[in-house]
Amino acid sequence: MFKKATLALAISGLLGASAAQAAVVYDQDGTTLDIYGRIAMGFEGGGEKNGVDNGEEFRNFGSRLRFTAGHQINADLRAFARVEWRFTGDERSRPGFDEVRNSYLGLESKQYGTFMAGNYNSYYDNYVMTPFDVYVERGYEFAGGGLQARGDSLGYKTPEINGFQAVFSAKHFSERGLTEAQQSSEGSVIATQGGVVYAAGPLRLALGYVEDSVRGGGNGETRFGTTAEYDINDAFSARLGYETRGDNDKRGGGFDTVGLGGSFATGAWTFYLDYYNIDVDNADKDRDAWAAAAHYDVSNNFDVFVELNDANKDANNNFEDDLYYAVGARYHF
User: What global pTM score does this model have?
Assistant: First the structure.
């Protein structure tokens, strides 16, 4: 059950396929238009206390609005497009939307695979490290959805063949239109990423890499990651992950991270628990972090959550890092 859910989340996050709660507003002659939205808010507190107050706050938790369009060109080929905006759901704001989170188009073929272009999430995150990306807010210590992604990208995904699927994406950081004074020392850069996934029965394995370019917030070294997920039964799933990045002579930034966790689902409840060991190059000692959460589905469209995260950043920093907690609710439409 969990492996199928992981794969479904990855596909719905990147393709023109809509989330389960999406409303089909048009479906005629092979052309579809879906609308999906989420309003999420709640309280958070704790976390880093690096010269700032870390008391309670009523806040937004990833509210968004999404349009997904598709057209069946022939029996095998489908065109799709998606645009998604984020907005602050807990208070009045101007402008109404904070950012364009995703905006892309593509062609999907059962025989030849899927081609995408535009502003979409990291393939490496969505397909390789995704078993650990289960928390609403904090607790995920591996790569994020924006890693060397979300803009000016071209991607390709093979069809699934005997349980195997490969993904590849390239993001272009251009210097076009910039004066010599405005140009970066790295110049125009293409950062690639990719991975291979194998799923059979209760087992899911994934391996991938990211060229962690400086232009995209990295240290100029390549990041590698792998995960394994196993459905022990219909209720319990276990996961193991590893991620590493080399230390750059000029910028540092090297690390080795090991993650171990599990999920337990019973009725409307789903519980998550993860432990990480983060070994940062040239740090005095390792950082041990953990996260736990309980999510409850009140209905298909409404859920509530409680999450805890001890990132333990004070292990190798000169500031206090308290236990982080979040309590909130989300309505999907």
Answer: 0.90
